[in-house]
Amino acid sequence: MAQILAPTMQWQTKITKSSAFAGPLSGKSWSSVVLKQRKSANTRSCRKFRVFAIKAENDVVNRLEGLLNLDVTPYTDKIIAEYIWIGGSGIDLRSKSRTISKPVQHPSELPKWNYDGSSTGQAPGEDSEVILYPQAIFKDPFRGGNNILVLCDAYTPAGEPIPTNKRARAAEIFSHPKVISEIPWYGIEQEYTLLQTNVRWPLGWPVGGYPGPQGPYYCGVGADKSFGRDISDAHYKACLYAGINISGTNGEVMPGQWEYQVGPSVGIEAGDHIWCSRYLLERITEQAGVVLTLDPKPIEGDWNGAGCHTNYSTKSMRDEGGFEVIKKAILNLSLRHQDHISAYGEGNERRLTGKHETANINTFSWGVANRGCSIRVGRDTEKQGKGYLEDRRPASNMDPYIVTSLLAETTLLWEPTLEAEALAAQKLSLKV
Protein backbone atom coordinates (compact mmCIF):
# COMPACT_ATOMS: atom_id res chain seq x y z
CA MET A 1 0.00 0.00 0.00
CA ALA A 2 1.54 3.28 -1.10
CA GLN A 3 0.95 6.14 1.29
CA ILE A 4 0.75 9.81 0.42
CA LEU A 5 1.10 12.50 3.04
CA ALA A 6 -1.25 15.39 2.34
CA PRO A 7 -1.74 18.37 4.66
CA THR A 8 -5.15 19.27 5.96
CA MET A 9 -7.09 22.52 6.08
CA GLN A 10 -4.51 24.97 4.80
CA TRP A 11 -3.26 22.80 1.96
CA GLN A 12 -4.94 21.08 -0.94
CA THR A 13 -3.89 18.81 -3.75
CA LYS A 14 -4.13 20.67 -7.05
CA ILE A 15 -3.90 18.96 -10.44
CA THR A 16 -3.57 21.24 -13.42
CA LYS A 17 -5.65 20.82 -16.56
CA SER A 18 -2.50 20.20 -18.54
CA SER A 19 -1.71 17.11 -16.53
CA ALA A 20 -0.64 14.21 -18.69
CA PHE A 21 -3.20 11.92 -17.10
CA ALA A 22 -6.95 11.89 -16.75
CA GLY A 23 -8.64 9.62 -14.25
CA PRO A 24 -7.13 7.82 -11.29
CA LEU A 25 -3.57 8.81 -10.44
CA SER A 26 -0.88 6.24 -11.07
CA GLY A 27 2.04 5.76 -8.71
CA LYS A 28 4.38 7.61 -11.09
CA SER A 29 1.93 10.43 -11.56
CA TRP A 30 2.13 11.49 -7.95
CA SER A 31 5.47 13.12 -8.66
CA SER A 32 3.64 15.70 -10.78
CA VAL A 33 1.13 16.59 -8.09
CA VAL A 34 1.76 20.09 -6.83
CA LEU A 35 0.88 20.92 -3.25
CA LYS A 36 -0.10 24.55 -3.08
CA GLN A 37 -0.92 26.56 -0.07
CA ARG A 38 -4.33 28.16 0.13
CA LYS A 39 -4.26 31.89 0.38
CA SER A 40 -4.93 32.39 4.04
CA ALA A 41 -3.48 34.61 6.70
CA ASN A 42 -3.50 31.76 9.19
CA THR A 43 -0.76 29.52 7.76
CA ARG A 44 1.35 29.02 10.85
CA SER A 45 -1.13 26.48 12.25
CA CYS A 46 -0.38 24.02 9.43
CA ARG A 47 0.86 21.18 11.59
CA LYS A 48 -1.31 18.13 10.95
CA PHE A 49 -1.20 15.73 8.05
CA ARG A 50 -3.67 13.11 6.94
CA VAL A 51 -2.59 9.84 5.32
CA PHE A 52 -4.29 8.91 2.06
CA ALA A 53 -3.76 5.29 1.07
CA ILE A 54 -3.45 4.47 -2.60
CA LYS A 55 -4.08 0.90 -3.71
CA ALA A 56 -0.94 0.02 -5.64
CA GLU A 57 -2.50 -2.83 -7.67
CA ASN A 58 -5.08 -0.82 -9.58
CA ASP A 59 -4.34 2.74 -8.48
CA VAL A 60 -7.79 3.21 -6.96
CA VAL A 61 -8.12 5.24 -3.78
CA ASN A 62 -8.68 2.82 -0.90
CA ARG A 63 -12.04 3.57 0.74
CA LEU A 64 -12.02 0.61 3.12
CA GLU A 65 -10.51 2.64 5.95
CA GLY A 66 -13.70 4.63 6.44
CA LEU A 67 -15.75 1.47 6.79
CA LEU A 68 -13.23 -0.20 9.09
CA ASN A 69 -13.34 2.82 11.39
CA LEU A 70 -17.12 3.11 11.49
CA ASP A 71 -18.50 3.69 14.98
CA VAL A 72 -21.66 1.58 15.12
CA THR A 73 -22.49 2.27 18.79
CA PRO A 74 -25.09 5.00 18.00
CA TYR A 75 -27.03 2.51 15.88
CA THR A 76 -26.88 -0.82 17.71
CA ASP A 77 -26.11 -2.40 21.07
CA LYS A 78 -24.53 -5.35 19.32
CA ILE A 79 -20.78 -5.91 19.56
CA ILE A 80 -18.23 -8.08 17.78
CA ALA A 81 -16.42 -10.71 19.83
CA GLU A 82 -13.23 -12.17 18.35
CA TYR A 83 -12.86 -15.69 19.77
CA ILE A 84 -9.17 -16.65 20.01
CA TRP A 85 -7.71 -20.09 20.64
CA ILE A 86 -4.45 -22.04 20.34
CA GLY A 87 -4.12 -24.25 17.26
CA GLY A 88 -2.82 -27.76 16.70
CA SER A 89 0.89 -26.95 16.84
CA GLY A 90 0.47 -25.64 20.38
CA ILE A 91 1.99 -22.31 19.35
CA ASP A 92 -0.18 -21.06 16.45
CA LEU A 93 -3.17 -18.83 17.15
CA ARG A 94 -6.55 -18.99 15.47
CA SER A 95 -9.56 -16.69 15.72
CA LYS A 96 -13.02 -16.03 14.31
CA SER A 97 -15.73 -13.44 14.94
CA ARG A 98 -19.31 -13.50 16.09
CA THR A 99 -21.97 -10.94 16.96
CA ILE A 100 -23.04 -10.61 20.59
CA SER A 101 -26.38 -8.94 21.38
CA LYS A 102 -24.97 -6.47 23.91
CA PRO A 103 -21.72 -5.48 25.69
CA VAL A 104 -20.46 -7.95 28.29
CA GLN A 105 -18.23 -7.64 31.33
CA HIS A 106 -17.31 -11.25 32.14
CA PRO A 107 -16.52 -14.42 30.12
CA SER A 108 -19.43 -16.22 31.82
CA GLU A 109 -21.82 -13.93 29.89
CA LEU A 110 -20.55 -15.27 26.57
CA PRO A 111 -21.77 -18.40 24.82
CA LYS A 112 -19.55 -21.37 24.14
CA TRP A 113 -18.75 -21.85 20.48
CA ASN A 114 -17.22 -24.51 18.26
CA TYR A 115 -14.83 -24.88 15.36
CA ASP A 116 -13.63 -27.48 12.88
CA GLY A 117 -10.79 -29.20 14.70
CA SER A 118 -9.91 -31.30 11.65
CA SER A 119 -8.76 -28.10 9.92
CA THR A 120 -6.44 -27.13 12.79
CA GLY A 121 -4.94 -30.57 13.44
CA GLN A 122 -6.91 -31.01 16.67
CA ALA A 123 -9.65 -33.50 15.76
CA PRO A 124 -10.38 -36.25 13.20
CA GLY A 125 -12.58 -35.44 10.22
CA GLU A 126 -15.29 -37.88 11.26
CA ASP A 127 -15.66 -36.18 14.67
CA SER A 128 -14.27 -32.71 14.08
CA GLU A 129 -16.24 -30.49 16.45
CA VAL A 130 -14.16 -28.81 19.16
CA ILE A 131 -15.83 -26.59 21.77
CA LEU A 132 -14.49 -23.19 22.77
CA TYR A 133 -14.91 -22.08 26.40
CA PRO A 134 -14.49 -18.30 26.90
CA GLN A 135 -11.94 -17.67 29.67
CA ALA A 136 -10.71 -14.07 29.48
CA ILE A 137 -11.90 -10.84 27.87
CA PHE A 138 -9.79 -7.98 26.50
CA LYS A 139 -10.77 -4.78 24.72
CA ASP A 140 -10.32 -4.97 20.96
CA PRO A 141 -7.81 -2.30 19.81
CA PHE A 142 -8.50 -3.06 16.14
CA ARG A 143 -12.27 -2.58 16.13
CA GLY A 144 -12.49 -0.26 19.14
CA GLY A 145 -15.78 0.64 20.83
CA ASN A 146 -17.30 -2.08 22.99
CA ASN A 147 -15.90 -4.83 20.80
CA ILE A 148 -13.81 -7.47 22.56
CA LEU A 149 -11.18 -10.16 22.18
CA VAL A 150 -12.17 -13.42 23.87
CA LEU A 151 -9.39 -15.80 24.86
CA CYS A 152 -10.69 -19.38 24.93
CA ASP A 153 -9.50 -22.88 25.68
CA ALA A 154 -10.71 -25.95 23.83
CA TYR A 155 -12.64 -29.09 24.86
CA THR A 156 -14.25 -32.14 23.34
CA PRO A 157 -18.06 -32.18 23.15
CA ALA A 158 -17.92 -34.42 26.25
CA GLY A 159 -16.19 -31.64 28.17
CA GLU A 160 -12.65 -33.07 28.25
CA PRO A 161 -9.70 -30.72 27.54
CA ILE A 162 -8.13 -31.54 24.18
CA PRO A 163 -4.35 -32.32 24.23
CA THR A 164 -3.30 -28.80 23.20
CA ASN A 165 -5.36 -27.24 25.99
CA LYS A 166 -2.66 -26.56 28.58
CA ARG A 167 -4.72 -23.93 30.35
CA ALA A 168 -7.01 -26.49 32.00
CA ARG A 169 -4.12 -28.22 33.82
CA ALA A 170 -2.61 -24.85 34.78
CA ALA A 171 -5.95 -23.76 36.24
CA GLU A 172 -5.97 -26.88 38.43
CA ILE A 173 -2.51 -26.09 39.82
CA PHE A 174 -3.32 -22.42 40.41
CA SER A 175 -6.54 -23.35 42.22
CA HIS A 176 -4.67 -25.50 44.76
CA PRO A 177 -5.06 -23.92 48.23
CA LYS A 178 -1.32 -23.92 48.88
CA VAL A 179 -0.64 -22.14 45.60
CA ILE A 180 -3.46 -19.65 46.16
CA SER A 181 -2.11 -18.76 49.60
CA GLU A 182 1.35 -18.04 48.15
CA ILE A 183 -0.02 -15.58 45.53
CA PRO A 184 2.53 -16.47 42.79
CA TRP A 185 3.71 -13.48 40.75
CA TYR A 186 5.15 -13.71 37.24
CA GLY A 187 6.97 -11.25 35.05
CA ILE A 188 7.51 -12.70 31.58
CA GLU A 189 10.03 -11.30 29.08
CA GLN A 190 8.80 -12.24 25.61
CA GLU A 191 11.48 -11.99 22.91
CA TYR A 192 10.57 -12.20 19.23
CA THR A 193 12.15 -11.70 15.81
CA LEU A 194 10.77 -9.77 12.84
CA LEU A 195 11.38 -11.22 9.38
CA GLN A 196 11.12 -9.78 5.91
CA THR A 197 8.21 -11.19 3.94
CA ASN A 198 8.99 -14.00 1.46
CA VAL A 199 12.75 -14.16 2.10
CA ARG A 200 12.27 -15.06 5.81
CA TRP A 201 15.36 -13.05 6.75
CA PRO A 202 15.48 -10.65 9.73
CA LEU A 203 14.09 -7.16 9.25
CA GLY A 204 16.85 -4.64 8.48
CA TRP A 205 19.34 -7.29 7.33
CA PRO A 206 20.63 -7.21 3.75
CA VAL A 207 18.93 -10.04 1.85
CA GLY A 208 21.26 -13.00 1.83
CA GLY A 209 23.82 -11.05 3.85
CA TYR A 210 24.62 -10.05 7.40
CA PRO A 211 24.72 -6.76 9.31
CA GLY A 212 27.62 -5.74 11.49
CA PRO A 213 28.28 -7.89 14.57
CA GLN A 214 26.20 -7.62 17.74
CA GLY A 215 26.95 -4.76 20.07
CA PRO A 216 25.19 -1.57 18.94
CA TYR A 217 21.69 -3.04 18.55
CA TYR A 218 20.60 -3.75 22.13
CA CYS A 219 18.35 -0.81 23.10
CA GLY A 220 19.90 0.93 20.09
CA VAL A 221 18.68 4.08 18.38
CA GLY A 222 19.11 4.97 14.71
CA ALA A 223 18.17 3.73 11.26
CA ASP A 224 21.24 1.48 11.13
CA LYS A 225 20.63 -0.07 14.54
CA SER A 226 16.88 -0.23 15.20
CA PHE A 227 14.63 -2.19 12.83
CA GLY A 228 10.90 -2.44 13.50
CA ARG A 229 10.42 0.16 16.23
CA ASP A 230 7.01 1.20 14.86
CA ILE A 231 5.78 -2.37 15.25
CA SER A 232 7.06 -2.53 18.82
CA ASP A 233 5.46 0.82 19.69
CA ALA A 234 2.15 -0.07 18.03
CA HIS A 235 2.09 -3.34 19.94
CA TYR A 236 2.86 -1.56 23.21
CA LYS A 237 -0.12 0.79 22.83
CA ALA A 238 -2.42 -1.98 21.61
CA CYS A 239 -1.61 -4.01 24.73
CA LEU A 240 -2.32 -1.05 27.01
CA TYR A 241 -5.61 -0.42 25.23
CA ALA A 242 -6.60 -4.09 25.48
CA GLY A 243 -5.94 -4.20 29.22
CA ILE A 244 -2.88 -6.42 29.04
CA ASN A 245 -0.45 -5.81 31.89
CA ILE A 246 2.50 -4.91 29.66
CA SER A 247 5.28 -3.26 31.65
CA GLY A 248 7.92 -2.34 29.07
CA THR A 249 9.68 -3.04 25.78
CA ASN A 250 13.15 -2.75 24.25
CA GLY A 251 15.25 -3.62 21.24
CA GLU A 252 17.24 -6.83 21.72
CA VAL A 253 20.85 -7.90 21.12
CA MET A 254 20.31 -9.37 17.66
CA PRO A 255 19.20 -6.76 15.08
CA GLY A 256 15.56 -7.21 14.10
CA GLN A 257 14.79 -8.78 17.47
CA TRP A 258 12.62 -7.18 20.18
CA GLU A 259 11.34 -7.90 23.66
CA TYR A 260 8.37 -6.85 25.73
CA GLN A 261 7.59 -7.63 29.35
CA VAL A 262 4.24 -8.61 30.85
CA GLY A 263 3.63 -8.53 34.58
CA PRO A 264 3.64 -8.74 37.44
CA SER A 265 0.68 -11.04 36.90
CA VAL A 266 -0.86 -13.44 39.39
CA GLY A 267 -1.39 -17.11 38.59
CA ILE A 268 -3.33 -18.05 35.45
CA GLU A 269 -3.55 -14.39 34.42
CA ALA A 270 0.11 -14.48 33.34
CA GLY A 271 -0.60 -17.07 30.65
CA ASP A 272 -3.78 -15.32 29.50
CA HIS A 273 -1.99 -12.01 29.06
CA ILE A 274 0.99 -13.48 27.20
CA TRP A 275 -1.23 -15.38 24.78
CA CYS A 276 -3.39 -12.35 24.05
CA SER A 277 -0.31 -10.15 23.65
CA ARG A 278 1.04 -12.64 21.10
CA TYR A 279 -2.25 -12.46 19.23
CA LEU A 280 -2.02 -8.67 19.05
CA LEU A 281 1.56 -8.92 17.80
CA GLU A 282 0.53 -11.38 15.09
CA ARG A 283 -2.24 -9.05 13.93
CA ILE A 284 0.01 -5.98 13.92
CA THR A 285 2.79 -7.69 11.95
CA GLU A 286 0.11 -8.99 9.58
CA GLN A 287 -0.99 -5.43 8.89
CA ALA A 288 2.61 -4.24 8.55
CA GLY A 289 3.49 -6.97 6.05
CA VAL A 290 6.20 -8.34 8.33
CA VAL A 291 6.57 -11.94 9.48
CA LEU A 292 6.72 -12.72 13.21
CA THR A 293 8.72 -15.69 14.45
CA LEU A 294 9.10 -17.06 17.97
CA ASP A 295 11.82 -19.48 16.90
CA PRO A 296 14.37 -19.67 19.76
CA LYS A 297 17.33 -19.53 17.34
CA PRO A 298 16.16 -17.92 14.10
CA ILE A 299 19.70 -17.35 12.80
CA GLU A 300 22.46 -19.86 13.42
CA GLY A 301 25.94 -18.67 14.29
CA ASP A 302 27.24 -15.89 16.50
CA TRP A 303 23.82 -14.35 17.11
CA ASN A 304 21.69 -14.31 20.24
CA GLY A 305 18.67 -16.56 20.36
CA ALA A 306 15.20 -15.61 21.56
CA GLY A 307 13.97 -16.61 25.00
CA CYS A 308 11.03 -16.01 27.28
CA HIS A 309 12.72 -15.43 30.63
CA THR A 310 10.23 -15.92 33.45
CA ASN A 311 10.58 -13.97 36.68
CA TYR A 312 8.84 -15.69 39.56
CA SER A 313 8.14 -15.10 43.24
CA THR A 314 5.81 -16.27 45.96
CA LYS A 315 4.56 -14.42 49.01
CA SER A 316 7.14 -16.24 51.15
CA MET A 317 9.92 -15.18 48.77
CA ARG A 318 8.80 -11.57 48.94
CA ASP A 319 8.55 -11.55 52.75
CA GLU A 320 11.42 -11.19 55.22
CA GLY A 321 13.76 -14.19 55.05
CA GLY A 322 12.59 -14.86 51.49
CA PHE A 323 16.10 -15.52 50.15
CA GLU A 324 16.18 -18.86 51.98
CA VAL A 325 12.84 -19.74 50.40
CA ILE A 326 14.26 -18.81 47.00
CA LYS A 327 17.23 -21.12 47.56
CA LYS A 328 14.90 -23.97 48.49
CA ALA A 329 12.95 -23.33 45.28
CA ILE A 330 16.20 -23.38 43.27
CA LEU A 331 17.06 -26.73 44.84
CA ASN A 332 13.72 -28.19 43.74
CA LEU A 333 14.16 -26.74 40.26
CA SER A 334 17.59 -28.36 39.95
CA LEU A 335 16.11 -31.78 40.75
CA ARG A 336 13.45 -31.42 38.05
CA HIS A 337 15.69 -29.76 35.48
CA GLN A 338 14.94 -32.24 32.68
CA ASP A 339 11.19 -32.09 33.34
CA HIS A 340 11.31 -28.33 32.89
CA ILE A 341 13.59 -28.40 29.84
CA SER A 342 11.30 -30.86 28.07
CA ALA A 343 8.38 -28.46 28.59
CA TYR A 344 10.15 -25.17 27.87
CA GLY A 345 9.75 -24.91 24.09
CA GLU A 346 10.61 -26.58 20.78
CA GLY A 347 14.11 -26.10 19.38
CA ASN A 348 15.46 -24.82 22.68
CA GLU A 349 18.56 -27.00 22.35
CA ARG A 350 19.71 -24.71 19.52
CA ARG A 351 19.55 -21.75 21.90
CA LEU A 352 20.75 -23.14 25.23
CA THR A 353 24.37 -23.75 24.26
CA GLY A 354 26.20 -22.05 27.12
CA LYS A 355 26.93 -19.10 24.85
CA HIS A 356 25.10 -15.84 24.11
CA GLU A 357 23.87 -15.33 27.67
CA THR A 358 22.54 -18.86 28.15
CA ALA A 359 23.37 -21.89 30.26
CA ASN A 360 24.02 -25.27 28.66
CA ILE A 361 20.77 -27.18 28.25
CA ASN A 362 22.18 -30.30 29.97
CA THR A 363 23.51 -28.55 33.08
CA PHE A 364 21.57 -26.80 35.80
CA SER A 365 23.20 -23.77 37.40
CA TRP A 366 22.30 -20.70 39.39
CA GLY A 367 24.02 -17.46 40.28
CA VAL A 368 23.60 -13.89 41.43
CA ALA A 369 23.48 -11.45 38.50
CA ASN A 370 24.83 -14.18 36.17
CA ARG A 371 23.00 -14.30 32.85
CA GLY A 372 24.90 -17.43 31.88
CA CYS A 373 23.05 -19.50 34.49
CA SER A 374 19.81 -21.46 34.36
CA ILE A 375 18.43 -19.43 37.28
CA ARG A 376 19.53 -15.86 37.95
CA VAL A 377 19.01 -14.05 41.23
CA GLY A 378 19.25 -10.26 41.17
CA ARG A 379 21.69 -8.23 43.25
CA ASP A 380 18.82 -6.45 44.97
CA THR A 381 17.28 -9.77 46.01
CA GLU A 382 20.57 -10.90 47.54
CA LYS A 383 21.07 -7.55 49.26
CA GLN A 384 17.54 -7.28 50.68
CA GLY A 385 17.29 -10.96 51.54
CA LYS A 386 14.00 -11.34 49.68
CA GLY A 387 12.58 -10.93 46.20
CA TYR A 388 12.33 -13.17 43.15
CA LEU A 389 14.22 -15.51 40.84
CA GLU A 390 14.54 -15.46 37.05
CA ASP A 391 14.24 -18.71 35.11
CA ARG A 392 16.28 -18.07 31.95
CA ARG A 393 15.64 -21.46 30.36
CA PRO A 394 12.24 -21.01 28.63
CA ALA A 395 12.37 -20.51 24.86
CA SER A 396 10.52 -17.70 23.10
CA ASN A 397 7.94 -20.22 21.82
CA MET A 398 7.16 -21.71 25.23
CA ASP A 399 3.58 -22.13 26.37
CA PRO A 400 3.15 -19.71 29.31
CA TYR A 401 0.46 -21.89 30.85
CA ILE A 402 2.95 -24.76 31.09
CA VAL A 403 5.91 -22.72 32.33
CA THR A 404 4.07 -20.72 34.98
CA SER A 405 2.15 -23.70 36.39
CA LEU A 406 5.23 -25.93 36.35
CA LEU A 407 7.19 -23.37 38.35
CA ALA A 408 4.40 -23.24 40.92
CA GLU A 409 4.09 -27.02 41.04
CA THR A 410 7.83 -27.67 41.43
CA THR A 411 8.43 -25.02 44.08
CA LEU A 412 5.18 -25.25 46.08
CA LEU A 413 3.63 -28.70 45.63
CA TRP A 414 6.45 -31.11 44.74
CA GLU A 415 8.59 -32.53 47.55
CA PRO A 416 11.94 -34.23 46.83
CA THR A 417 13.31 -37.06 48.94
CA LEU A 418 15.62 -36.03 51.76
CA GLU A 419 18.56 -37.84 50.12
CA ALA A 420 18.06 -36.09 46.79
CA GLU A 421 17.63 -32.76 48.54
CA ALA A 422 20.87 -33.17 50.48
CA LEU A 423 22.87 -34.16 47.40
CA ALA A 424 21.47 -31.28 45.35
CA ALA A 425 22.15 -28.78 48.12
CA GLN A 426 25.75 -29.92 48.33
CA LYS A 427 26.23 -29.78 44.58
CA LEU A 428 24.73 -26.31 44.28
CA SER A 429 26.38 -24.98 47.47
CA LEU A 430 22.97 -24.19 48.90
CA LYS A 431 22.33 -24.15 52.63
CA VAL A 432 18.63 -24.61 53.13
TrEMBL record:
It comes from the Eukaryota. This is Uncharacterized protein.
